[in-house]
Amino acid sequence: MRPLVPSLLAAGFTVANAEYRRVGAGGGWPATADDVVAARAALGTDVIAVGHSAGAQLAVCLARRGGVRAVVSLAGVLDVVAAARDGLGEGAAAAFLGGLPDEVPEVYAAASPMALTPVGVPVTCLHAPADQRVPFAQSAAFTDATGDRLVTVAGDHFTPIDPGSAAWASALAEVSALAGPRPS
After folding, report:
1. What confidence tens digit (pLDDT) does each residue in 150-160 have?
2. Which parts of the chain are coiled coil (predicted)?
3. What are the domain boundaries of the chain?
């Protein structure tokens, strides 16, 4: 997400780029989610959470806990049960959540955006149908279930986080629309 910060700043946003513990470095559920919650609590201001891939999953989980005005999911992992079943990211969901869905169903229920609907705030899902890492179907199913906005873009899994891409321009427009009018 770091390369996107300059364009958000140029658009007039105050930006906090929160890092979190990863699996193998003290992360996993719930420690990683706790890091995101702590980062949000430190801000003390109105927040639109923007996350890419697994970061989008965390952004939706954060929104469900409150304190977030909206979420923009960039190629988000929005159904961790499907991610585990499909073996996405070489088994990343199972490693992150401490087992498979039938082994720790309560963890999947707490960590999967699909299980957390309704989220309670607007969620815009921006996703490329050609994404080969996280299936477009994840965003499509989430927006079908929630009635939230789905924005289809050209490219692959990483195009939405390329600050020079049309996909990122679309994402920035979504953030601006969700933020509404800002003081000059």
Report:
1. 999 999 999 99
2. none
3. 2-179
